[in-house]
Each structure stands twice: as structure tokens, then as C-alpha cells.
Amino acid sequence: MKKRNKHIVQGILAFLYIFSGFLPVEAATEQEKANGNKPPVVIEADHLYFSDATGEFFAQGNAVVVQNEDKIIADKIRGNSKQTMIWVDDSASFSQTNDKTNVNLTGHNIIYDYKQQSGTIAAAQGTVQGSTNKAYIKGQNLQVASNKMVVHQGWITGCPAIKPDYHVTADKIEIWPGDKLIAYNASFYIKGRRIYTLPKYSKSLNDNDKGEFPRLGYSSDDGLMIAQYLEYPLSNRTSVFADAVYYTKRGFEPSYGVINRMPGYTLQFGAVRESNSDDEWITKEPEFSLTTDPIKLGNTPLTAKILLSAGKWKEEAVAGWRQSYGLSLNHAPIKLADNVTLNFGMGYQGIHYAYNDTTNHIWSYRVMVQGESKKLDWWTGYIHNNESGDSPYVYDDIETPRELTAGFIYKLDSKNGLGVNAVYDMSTDKIKDVDYIWRRDLHCWKADITYREKRNEWRVKLHTVEW
Question: How many domains does the chain divide into?
Fold first, then answer.
């Protein structure tokens, strides 16, 4: 058995690559392209022991094992290059990072097969970060692979608190990081009390969806609102969904259908009843839609997104088929200062209305600057829409083609914030809306109470922290 310290680790790695498939970081990319093999393994440690005869190695002191997107960090790591295995007996951390997700876990008794890029972690806990949502997970045992994790006797929540107000437990949770999860025999808890159980439940980790816990709200026009959204998986990719929404002034307004989440795009078909921010309602019975995930355009900072839809829309006496196709381009956020970010993009949408046999071509441009600090969040933005025609539906009619928005939230303390948001119609040189906002952090829940001065309208929204 030979011993080396960290100062000559790179030389050791080159030696190990020649005889057993290990590779230094600097050469990894070129070698992968040349031979198409599995991503190489890189090991660093204060002290590294290895045996040429048996393939056994032992890393001690700040030991790090990296393979492509996967990283294991521990004080002591054992392995065998001939068996392509790594073992960690004590506590360790495991991370997996790419452009779609960020996984950070801790646990012990890690067993990892770097040839298969799979392994297990006992008493695992940590976070799975998607494009928009973050989930906190733990389980008795976790299996990890290059694109999937399976948590046994698992627990998951979107609340970062030590004792979260809500969580889900399941016998097994299959997680495709940055995509979705499916939980089996899933029980849903609020304040430690089980509210219901489902044999299977699916959830997107890509979207700010409606969540699996009850939603409450109020508006002057529609009255008190209570809603519950559920998805039941038919397969790994396909689920049926239902969103049961009840308003004291409107009655029952449900939506339901089938959703199919494929790698790179999502298909949905169903009957939808919904309102926009101006409280204008539309019925879509049925509607089909295809939405792609953001598509990165080469090495540029741009991403593209495509949306196609077709459905029968009904708004009072106006009814007919509506088909649309659209493309949006967005630039990656630009950091103007430590806490100031610039976002901008553009889009095109073509819409054909069978009701009056017209087509509307809409070009849109948008820019937003946002800042945040310990006491103050602020934003200002501009939207420009150039359309060739008008919509027969009030629901998707563009009332303000040129709109300037500005607002702020001042944080009174860790739980309360007060703010104002104003919308200026540049086409008419008039202020369209002035909204006064009280934002209340209720531990794992958020409440927004808004008074819309120009409309003399109150709105209240209570929901869980999104995950």
C-alpha cells in the first residue's frame, strides 16, 4: 500500500487513470469526447492511499470524490477502482448540480458505483432545487442515479422551518430532479394533523403550480374562495388533475383534465374555468396545450420557449374555437449591482378566433429591474405590446398596450411588509392601478392583503410557501 499527500494528488490521479479508469479534472472533457466512456472520477484528499495490486484506495482528510455532476465529501472515503465502488461509513454530503437542478444531501453509509453512476445513502436529508421551487426531503434510505432519486419511508415539504407547518410522508417518493415527483401511499399533514391520504400523488418541480394543500382567498367581486388541487399519476409521465374551487358569490368553478410531462415539454388537455388579474372569466371546454421547457440557445445567454394551444372558448354570448402559437425569448438575468437585477425579453403570438374568423398578431417586449435588501424590495418595469387586431373576448383583450409598473415592499420586521404597486398606462397617460399591499409571513404560509384603490376592491390570498 502506498501513501501520498495532497501536493502530489494530481500525479496519483494520472497514474490511476492509466491503470484503472480515473482521470484528472483538466483532462476529463477531452477524454470523454474521445472515447465516449462514462464520466471519469476525480479524488482529492489530504492523504491518499492506494494499492496497484488490489485496486483498493483510501482517502482521508477533506476527501472529495467528483464524477461529472455528482460530488461526495467526507472525512474518510474507501473505494476499489477494479470494482468501481466507493464506500463512506461515517457522515458525508452528496450533491448533484446542473443547469436544471441543484441537489444537496447529507447522510451516512454511502455506497456509490461510479461506473453505473448510482448508489444509496442511509438517513438522508437535504434539498432538491428545481428551476423555480425548492423541496426539503428526508428518508430512511435514498437511492440515487444520474437522473432519478428514490426516497424510502420519505418525508417532504416546501417549508424551510425546523418544524414545518405542513409536510407529506410516503412509503416511497420517486424524484426526477428539476422535473417532477411521484409519492406512493402519500399522507398530507398540517400542524402535525393528517388531513388526507392518497395511494399515489404526482407534482411538478418545474412550475409554480397550485400545490397540494388547501388555498384560501377573498375578492370583493367573487367573495370567499377555498380551493384544492390534486394530481393522480397514471404513469411516470401522465397524470389526471382536478382543481376544485368554490366561491361564495360564484359557486363551484372546477377545472380538470390530463397532463403529460415529457422531457423538454408538457402536454395538457382538459376543461378549464379561470379568471385573469382583472377578474374577467373564461370557460375553455376543452383546450389542448403544448408548452416547452426553456430551451437554451447554444452558448448565448438566451432561452426560448414555445407555446401552442387550441380550444373552444366561451365568454357569455361569445363562443368559438381559438388557436394560438407563440415564441418567447428571454435573456439571462444581468446583475447590475450586488442586489439589483435586470431581466428582459420579447415574444410573438399569433391567435386565430373562429368566432369572427380573425387573426391577431402580437409582438411584445418587456424589461424589469428588481432590487432587494434586508429592509426593502423594489421593482420597476415596462411592457410594450404591438397587435394587429383585437380579441372578441374581454378575457384576453390587451387593455394597456404600453404599460409602466413600479412598486416596493418595505419590511417592517421579519414577519410583516407594507408596499405599493402602481401601473401607468402610457397610451392614455393615466394611472391605471394603485395597489396597497400588506404581506404577512405566517411561518410556512404567506398571506397577501391588497386594496386596489382604482377599483375600490379588496383581495386576500393565503397559500403555502411554493415548492
Answer: 2
